[in-house]
Write a structure and sequence with these properties.
Rossmann fold, alpha/beta, three-stranded mixed sheet, globular, binds NADP nicotinamide-adenine-dinucleotide phosphate, 12 strands, 10 helices, 38% helix
Length: 304
C-alpha cells in the first residue's frame, strides 16, 4: 500500500527533525520544504513564492508548517522584520498552495506560540484557549499576525489547527541544552525575581500531540504545553538537583540584561511570565507521557 505523505515546511529545524523521525516511524512518507536543501526528502522553496515544491501538497495527508526565523536574537529592527515576515510569508504561500490543490491535504497544522498570551504573573489563572488573554507586545503581536494570516485562508477541504506551543524541551535542540549547560556552570538560581511562570512541553509529547490531532481533529487554536506550569524559581531548583553545580551564582535582572546583550539574545525569553494550560488537549483525552517537570527533566538528563 502506498504510504500517506506529510509535508513539513521548515522541517530541517529542531521540531521538524523530531517530527520527521516520529512520523516516519508511524509509516508516513515525509517531504521537507527547505530554503537550502534539495536532496532526498528535501524540496527547495523560498518560503515566499509558489513554485514546483507546491506540487508535493497534491494528495498529501497533512501539511505541517514549522518555518520561521529563530526568535533567539536581539530584537533590532532588521531581526524583528525577519521574525515577522518569515512567518507571514511562509504561511501565506502555503495557503495559496493548498488552495491550488485538486486534492488538498486533509490537515494543515501551522506553528504558533504560547507566547501569544499576555504576561501572566502570580495567581492569575493559566491561559486556556477559550479564556486566555492575548497580549500586546512585539512577540505577542507577531503571534497574532501569524494566526490571522493562517486563519484568513479559506480551505473547505483542509482542517486547520494553530499550534500554540510552549517552550519545547529536548536533549538535542531548542532551549534546553543551553539552559542545562549554563546550570552546570552555576546559572540555576532564580532569574530576575524568579516568580515568572514557565510553561513547557517535552519534545516527545510534541510529536505525540501531532499524531493525536490527526486522529482526534481539533480545528482552531490548541495549546501545546504540559499541564504543569512552574515558577522560574521552581524550575531552577529542579535543574540544580540534576546539574549539581559546584556553586550557584545569583541572576538578578541587570546581570541577565548584560548576559543577553553578550549572547545576542533577549531577556524576554526568560523573564516573561508564561502561564498556559492545555485545556483542549486534555478535554479531547490526550495523555501526556511527561505531565510533570520532574518526569521531563529526569528523562532529559538521563545518560548525560
Ligand atoms: N522550539 C520551541 O520551543 C518552539 C516553541 C514555540 C513555537 N516554536 C515555533 O515552531 C517553529 C519551529 O521551531 P524550531 O524550534 O524547530 O525552530 P528552528 O529549529 O529554528 O527551525 C525553523 C526552520 O525554519 C526555517 N527558517 C529559518 N529562518 C527562516 C526564514 N527567514 N524564512 C523561512 N524559513 C526559515 C529553517 O529551515 P531552512 O533553513 O531549511 O529553510 C529552520 O530549520 C518556529 O516557527 C518556532 O517559532 C518553537
Amino acid at each position: 500500500m502506498e504510504k500517506q505523505k506529510i509535508i513539513i515546511a521548515g522541517g530541517s529545524g529542531f521540531l521538524g527533525q523530531h517530527l520527521t523521525r516520529h512520523l516516519e516511524g508511524k509509516g508516513f512518507e515525509i517531504k521537507l520544504l527547505s530554503r537550502s536543501k534539495n536532496q532526498g526528502k528535501y524540496l527547495k522553496w523560498d518560503a515566499k513564492n509558489l513554485d514546483d515544491w507546491a506540487e508535493a501538497l497534491e494528495g498529501a495527508y497533512a501539511l505541517i508548517n514549522m518555518a520561521g526565523r529563530t526568535v533567539d536574537c536581539r530584537y533590532n529592527e532588521k531581526n524583528k522584520a525577519q521574525i515577522l515576515n518569515s512567518r507571514i510569508d511562509s504561511t501565506k504561500v502555503l495557503g495559496e498552495a493548498v488552495k491550488a490543490c485538486q486534492y488538498p491535504p486533509k490537515f494543515w497544522f501551522n506553528s504558533s506560540t504560547a507566547t501569544i498570551y499576555q504576561h501572566t504573573p502570580g495567581d492569575l489563572p493559566a491561559n486556556t484557549e477559550v479564556e486566555g488573554i492575548l497580549g500586546d507586545d512585539f512577540s505577542m503581536n507577531v503571534a497574532k499576525a501569524w494566526e490571522r494570516e493562517f486563519f484568513s485562508h479559506e480551505t473547505p477541504h483542509t482542517l486547520k489547527t494553530a499550534l500554540r506551543t510552549a517552550i519545547v524541551l529536548g536533549k538535542d535542540g531548542g532551549a534546553f541544552p543551553v539552559i542545562y549547560k549554563l546550570a552546570k556552570y552555576g546559572l540555576c538560581s532564580p532569574q530576575g525575581n524568579g516568580q515568572q511562570w514557565f510553561s513547557w512541553l517535552h519534545v516527545d509529547d510534541f510529536c505525540a500531540i501531532l499524531d493525536f490531532l490527526m486522529q482526534h481533529p481539533l480545528a482552531g487554536v490548541v495549546n501545546l504545553c504540559a499541564p504543569d506550569p512552574r515558577t522560574n524559581t521552581q524550575f531552577n531548583q529542579l535543574l540544580r538537583q540534576y546539574a549539581k553545580p559546584l556553586f550557584v551564582l545569583p541572576q538578578p535582572k541587570w546581570i541577565l540584561e548584560i548576559g543577553a546583550f553578550l549572547l545576542r539574545t533577549e531577556t524576554e525569553l526568560i523573564l516573561k511570565s508564561r502561564k498556559v494550560y492545555p485545556a483542549h488537549l486534555l478535554d479531547a483525552g490526550f495523555q501526556f507521557q511527561y505531565s510533570t517537570l520532574e518526569q521531563a527533566l529526569k528523562a532529559l538528563v538521563k545518560s548525560e
